[in-house]
Design a protein that fits this description.
The chain is an alpha/beta fold. It has two domains: 72 residues, Orthogonal Bundle (Chemotaxis Receptor Methyltransferase Cher, domain 1); 189 residues, Rossmann fold (3-Layer(aba) Sandwich). It is built from eleven helices and ten strands. The chain has a seven-stranded mixed sheet with strand order 6-2-1-7-8-10-9. A three-stranded antiparallel sheet has the order 3-5-4. A hairpin with a 2-residue loop joins β4 and β5. α1 runs parallel beside α3. The protein starts with a helix and ends in an 8-residue tail after the last strand.
């Protein structure tokens, strides 16, 4: 193997590492420990642009719009309606009764992907009958602008796997057939406001008004402990005193220096902010 070829491989590896660092700094996704996966995700884009990894990292510094394409490639947006049913049951049975006297209830779906989570929250609340649906405002955010467009439309193909846990009676009640799929009904859709947001950007996080409940499920698994601590601290500040935080079942903040109390329910666990605001963060 000649020296020129070896140098080319080393340069390519260094540029790939630089790209991984740029992504980490931009949105917290940690590909630095799995650069081969990152290479597989972006190689097709580089082929389309006819660029090397080094040229692409330089391109990203000059073209902010390219980050939209890159985010589409590196984020995982697989989801479905009524995912993690035990948490939705806890919302209905334990949390909504505590909020029934509030004039307004604000919920943040902090990584809403194509919209199944916030729509499921709205449908769950409507089914509960505990609080008026008209008193609920759901803020749904994601870093991926393409999935936000799908979410905001609220239409899903009839053969989509997103309906794999949706009972027929719920489909009939909250959707109507349209073309080759189903459209979410307006009285559910109107409760949700979709926004583009980066969980690592202070200005994006500060733009979210104080909320009573945050759902951020299956996102922290892609962060390291440093980034997780940063995001959890921001969530703490966006919650009203006594507010609730739901993470994915494979995620926990136990062991981190937070002011959240862990609530161990029968079939799930979640976190509660104290009734008195603390200024640790």
């Amino acid at each position: 193997m000649n020296m020129e070829f070896i140098n080319e491989i080393q340069d390519n590896d260094m540029c790939l590492k630089d790209l991984g660092q740029m992504i980490y700094d931009f949105c917290g996704l940690n590909y630095l420990d799995n650069l081969s996966l990152l290479a597989s995700k972006v190689s097709k884009r580089l082929s389309i642009l006819n660029m090397t990894f080094g040229e692409y990292t330089e391109f990203l510094t000059r073209n902010q719009q390219e980050w939209n394409h890159l985010v589409e490639l590196i984020t995982n947006n697989e989801t479905y309606f009524f995912r993690e049913e035990s948490q939705l049951n806890e919302l209905s049975n334990a949390i909504l009764p505590q909020l029934r006297n509030k004039k307004w209830i604000r919920i943040w779906s902090a990584a809403c992907s194509t919209g199944e989570e916030p729509y499921s929250l709205a449908m769950t609340i409507a089914e509960s009958g505990i609080v008026p649906l008209e008193s609920v405002h759901i803020i749904a955010t994601d870093i991926n602008k393409k999935v936000l467009q799908i979410a905001n439309r609220g239409w899903y193909h009839k053969n989509s796997l997103c309906f794999r846990r949706t009972p027929k009676e719920m489909l009939d009640k909250y959707f109507f057939p349209q073309d080759e799929g189903f459209q979410i009904k307006s009285f559910i859709k109107d409760r949700i406001e979709f926004r583009h947001s980066n969980l690592l950007h202070d200005e994006d996080m500060a733009a979210v008004e104080k909320v009573d409940i945050i759902f951020c499920r299956n996102v922290l698994i892609y962060f390291d402990s440093v980034t997780t601590s940063r995001v959890i601290a921001k969530f703490y500040h966006r919650l009203n005193p006594g507010g609730f935080l739901f993470l994915g079942h494979a995620e926990t903040i136990t062991g981190l220096n937070t002011n959240f109390e862990t609530i161990n329910a029968r079939a799930t666990f979640y976190f509660r902010k104290g009734d008195v605001e603390r200024s640790q963060y």
